[in-house]
Write a structure and sequence with these properties.
The chain has helices at residues 23-27, 101-106, 111-114, 161-169, 189-192, and strands spanning 15-19, 38-42, 47-49, 54-56, 63-64, 67-73, 89-96, 99-100, 120-128, 139-144, 147-153, 179-181, 203-208, 212-220. By secondary structure, it is mainly β. The protein has one domain (15-220): Fumarylacetoacetase-like, C-terminal domain (Fumarylacetoacetate hydrolase, domain 2, Alpha-Beta Complex), CATH 3.90.850.
Length: 221
């Protein structure tokens, strides 16, 4: 297990994301809850940190934000029971699962829409698990230009952190430094108001109680 992770130099070994994992976010779509976690990935090359710029790619027409609680794995984990999951977690951080919605809709996989360079702001630091009493009860919010867009709590997850990590580890070995993005609540641009999608010049803030906030500006590629 790590003692401490320096966020400035930290790049996860892999990024595994969970889609459709907040009741409110499923309700703002078709209301059909998944019966198993929906997993996808982001390329680790798109990681940026607090204060760095999110680049709006030329080919993208709909750029969106997603505040999410990120779990950082601390021990090699394979076929872990739910009750053992906490032993394998190092800590928590915030990820903005930046997404090219038009590309997500038009292609039959999500990897490219989720993996353009700069599409994974993480930080502002990695908080060791001992410092967070209940990760399943944290307020999380996002703001664009100071206006609140998402406002929820990790208690609204469909599959809990314990269920997610147990499920993922049943087929995929998790290694120290892997990052699990646990899904986003309601309020993303595409499902609220198309005017809420991101534009060059905007500033997005993602905030989670007991972890902090990450702030990133959007610039044209
Ligand atoms: Mg997401």
């Amino acid at each position: 297990m790590f003692n401490k992770i320096n966020i400035k130099t930290f790049i996860p070994d892999k990024i595994i994301c969970v889609g459709m994992n907040y009741k409110s976010h499923v309700d703002e779509q078709d209301g059909r809850f998944p019966n198993k976690p929906v997993l996808f990935s982001k390329a680790t090359s798109c990681v940026i940190k607090n204060g760095q710029v999110i680049l709006y790619p030329k080919e993208v027409k709909e750029l969106d934000y997603e505040v999410e609680l990120a779990i950082i794995i601390g021990e090699k984990a394979k076929k872990i029971a739910e009750k053992e999951v906490m032993d394998y977690i190092f800590g928590y951080t915030i990820i903005n699962d930046v997404t090219a919605r038009d590309i997500q809709k038009n292609e039959s996989q999500w990897y490219r829409a989720k993996s353009f360079d700069t599409f994974a702001p993480i930080g502002p630091e990695i908080v060791p698990k001992e410092k967070i009493k209940d990760p399943q009860n944290l307020n999380l919010r996002s703001y664009v230009n100071g206006e609140i867009r998402q406002n929820s709590n990790t208690s609204d997850m469909i599959f809990s952190i314990k269920k997610l990590i147990s499920y993922i580890s049943s087929s995929i070995t998790l290694n120290p430094g892997d990052l699990i993005a646990t899904g986003t609540p309601a309020g993303v641009g595409v499902f609220t108001n198309k005017n809420n999608l991101l534009k060059a010049g905007d500033e997005v803030i993602c905030e989670i109680e007991s972890i902090g906030k990450i702030r990133n500006k959007i610039e044209k590629e």
